[in-house]
Structure prediction request, 418 residues.
Amino acid sequence: MERVLYIATRKPIPVTGGRDRMIVQSLRMLATKYEVGLLYFEKDSEGASVACREMKNDLGIGFVEPLYFPRIPEISVNLITRHSKSLQENLFFSRRSARKIRTAIAGFQPDIIVADMIRCGQFVDDIGIPKVLEMDDLLSARYERFAHSTSSDDNLLGTFASILPRSITTAVNYRLKPLVLRYEAGKMRRREMAAVCTFDAVTLVSVSETQKLCAMTGGKNIFPVPPTVDKISDGKLADVTYPCKLLFLGNLSTNQNLSSIKFIVDEVLPILDKIGFSYNFDICGSHDSRAERIVGGNSQVRLLGYVDSIDEIFRSHDIFLTPITFGSGIKTKILDAMSYGLPVITNDVGIEAIPGVDGKDYINANHPEEIAQAVIDLYENKELMTSISLNCRELMTRYYFYKNVENTYLDMLANLHR
Prediction:
C-alpha cells in the first residue's frame, strides 16, 4: 500500500472550526486508499502522548507524532534572517521540527506528502517527493479584508497568541493591526503564487478562488476540494416556532465569527426589537469573555457554548442567521445548515463561494435593515421557507456530498504518479 505523510498546522480533533474539519476530511479520505502518517503542531507537550493515541484510534492512523512551535529566541532569529517568508511562517518555523520532519520522511518513506497551509508547506519546499499543498483559501485576500475591521475584540494573532508574550499580542492587536495585516497580505500573495511552482498540486476550498489563483499564476495544477457534508436530511422542515428561533454556529475564538455575532447583536437585532418582532437568538460554539461582552445582558440572546452534536440544534431552529463581516472561502457552517434544510440568511461574503440562487436556495442580504427585513419576510412566508429548505438540500447533494468529493480528491492524488 502506498503511503501519505500529512503535516498539519494543528491537532485536528476535537473538531472546533473549519480548518480542523478540512484536515480530518482529508485524513479520512486518504485512509481509504493509503497508509497515512500524521505530524501535527502541538501546544500541549504534556498531553501530546494522549492526543496521539486518541487520533490513532479516532482517525485510523498508525503513525502520529507531534511537532512543536519555536521558542521566542528562535522566532526572533527567524524574523531577522528569513525575510522572504511571511510572518506566520516565521512564527511556525522551528529547526527542531524541521529535523523531525526530515527524520519522519526518511523513516516512513511516503510516496506523497500533503502539507496543511503554507506555514507547513515551507518545511518540504525542496523535498523531491510528489507534494500537495492544501491552502484552504487565499489568506492574502482574507488579510486584506481583515485590515478594514475596526473591532477592539479582534485577535490578530489567532492560534499564535498563546505562544507569544501578552505585551506582543497587545501591541499587535491594538496598535499595529492595519500595518501588520497589509504586510502579511503582500507576503502571503507572493508565497501563494510561488507555491504553485513548488508543489505538484495545490488545493483550495472554493471554485472561485481556484479560478482566481489560476488566473494569477497560469498554473494548471490548482484544484478545488471543498468541505463536504456526510448526509443530507430527508425530513420535512419542522413547523415554525413562536417566537422565531434564530441560530448562529461557529467557533467564537476566531475573529470572523466574533465579528459576525457583534454585527448581528449590535446592528440587526435592535431593528427587530424596534419593530416588535419576537425572536430568540442562539449562538453555538466555544467562546471566551469577548463573546460574553458582546452579548451583554440581552435576554433574547443565548451563548450555548460548544455542542457535541448539531443535529438537534439545526432541527430545532427556524432560520440560520449568518452574515459574515469578513473572510474568504467556503463557510462550512452554511453548508451544514443547508444540508439539514435550515433556511439561511447570509450576505455577499457568506455566500460568495457557494453556487446557488438568491431567493431560491438561500436569502442574501447585506445591510442591517435588509437583513432584519429578510428575517421577518422569510419567517412569515411558510411556503418560501419550505421551498428554500428543499432547494438548499438539493444544492448540497449536487456539489458537496462526501463521496463525490472523495472520488475527485483521490483521483487528483493518483494522477501525481502519472
About this structure: The mean pLDDT is 91. The longest strand covers residues 35-42.
